[in-house]
Specification:
This is PBSX family phage terminase large subunit. The protein is an alpha/beta fold. The chain is built from 15 helices and 17 strands. The chain is 31% helix and 22% strand. The protein binds adenosine-5'-diphosphate (ADP) and magnesium ion (MG).
Length: 421
């Protein structure tokens, strides 16, 4: 029962990484350089291979729940590409708890976080039906503390029965800060156990043209962000605007909140972002997102209909595009324009800074944006200005609009479920 990996293709620049059995494979790179897809494909092929019987993979993110939309999604994506309609014959894919098991080798994949003491304690009691923990993939590794990685590193010890097996930790990340411990620990030293790697979206032959255009825009408008997310160089994402947020799982049902509404920032080349925001005791809960590129309003409305957005909730929208607002209204949504006044951007940001912002792990694009949304820097003086950068800020614009009903109580808004809904 062998199926060859005919349907997956690889980017050549990861060849050495995929062949390496060094203890540490450390992949830094720009956004979109192909790191995550590559590592997922590499692991699925190896875990399916009889030669590596007894290998088991642990996938780690800082917040465990974010595994579902990242490592787990990439790995199941790779399984589906390789095996197509026969995926379930070869892999057991479980949702709760998230686990993958090769039916050929018995090798398993599990998922964990390192967000608190309980998470860390759980790392100590990991066992598998066959073999030991051999491989660890730390995705978005810059989110972790050095001590988290030390705990993980400690888990990879002892003799292995199968001579083909080896211990390995794989790191994937964008190099957000030149003072980050990962640079010191793995890049600033020469050590035979470490293989470091650098990649950019320019080397990824699968990336689309629109992505290139967005990156060029970023290069112009946000040179610091481009250095890190476009070129994958150690940089400094200074002047980050919002730090008062927490990614965590929570119940997104209507009754959990004092009120709920949507906020939308229109876009075509830029993303069109819609956030579903709950408010409880004055704090913001980003429950869900729709985040799409190069889609017409009618297509986005279709997506919203399919996703079952509630039509009785008010949707605060960018006032610059009344035609689009009209289309949403015609489709039965309660879309209203957010009036812009001088200083409103700063006022909205001030408002956001005074609350906690909880973000559901499903909102992957909101999470990505909030981590890097920063103040513009004056080219001459090097000082931060009182204006945010205007790229990769679409979910953030929607988040700003979502403050309107709270910032301006005179809007007299209500998110009560009308009779009959
Ligand atoms: N080997 C591959 N085969 C097909 N598509 C790929 C491959 N590698 C990358 N891609 C495409 O490029 C996009 C970006 O790759 P990804 O691995 O997510 O980048 P990174 O993790 O470096 O940010 C993916 O969403 C996918 O569309
Ligand atoms: Mg990635």
């Amino acid at each position: 029962m062998t199926v060859t990996a005919v349907k997956v293709q690889f980017n050549r620049h990861f060849k050495e990484i995929n062949q390496s059995q060094k203890r540490y494979r450390v992949l830094k790179g720009s956004a979109g350089s192909g790191k995550s897809v590559n590592i997922a494909q590499d692991f699925i092929i190896k875990l399916s291979d009889e030669r590596y019987k007894g290998a088991n993979l642990l996938c780690v993110r800082k917040v465990n729940e974010t595994n579902r939309n990242s490592t787990y999604a990439e790995l199941t994506g790779a399984i589906n590409k390789i095996y197509g309609a026969r995926a379930e014959e070869f892999w057991e894919i479980r949702q709760s708890p998230l686990t993958l098991r090769s039916r050929v080798t018995g090798n398993e994949v599990i998922f964990r976080g390192v967000n608190d003491a309980r998470d860390r304690e759980k790392l100590k009691s990991i066992t598998f039906a066959h073999g030991k923990l051999t491989w660890i993939w730390i995705e978005e590794a810059t989110e972790l503390q050095e001590s988290d990685v030390d705990i993980l590193d400690d888990r990879l010890r002892g003799e292995l029965d199968n001579p083909n097996l080896y211990y390995q930790i794989t790191f994937t990340f964008n190099p957000v800060s030149a003072t980050h411990w990962i640079k010191r620990k793995y890049f600033d030293i020469v050590n035979p156990d470490i293989l470091t790697h650098h990649s950019t979206y320019l080397q990824n032959r699968f990336i689309d043209k629109a992505y290139h255009r967005r990156m060029m825009l970023r290069k112009e408008q946000d040179p610091e962000g481009y250095e890190v997310y476009g070129l994958g160089n150690w940089g400094e994402i200074g002047g980050v605007i919002l730090k008062n947020y927490k990614v965590m799982e929570f119940d997104t049902s209507f009754h959990m909140f004092d009120s709920k509404h949507y906020a939308q920032d229109f876009g075509f080349n830029h993303a069109n972002a819609i956030l579903e925001v709950g408010v409880k005791d004055g704090d913001f809960y980003v429950c869900d997102e729709i985040y799409v590129h190069e889609k017409d309003t009618s297509e986005i409305i279709e997506i919203a209909n399919r996703r079952g957005l509630d039509k009785y909730l008010t949707m605060y929208c960018d006032s610059a595009e009344p035609d689009r607002i009209q289309m949403w209204n015609n489709a039965g949504y309660r879309a209203v324009a957010v009036e812009k006044e001088p200083g409103s951007v700063q006022a909205q940001i001030d408002y956001l800074k005074q609350r906690m912002i909880y973000i559901h792990p499903n909102c992957v694009n909101t999470i990505k944006e909030i981590q890097q949304w920063s103040w513009k820097k004056d080219k001459k003086t090097g000082l931060y200005l009182d204006e945010p950068v205007t790229v990769f800020d679409d979910a953030m614009a929607a988040l700003r609009y979502s403050t309107e009903p709270l910032r301006k109580p005179e809007l007299n808004w209500s998110s009560e479920r009308p009779r009959g809904w």
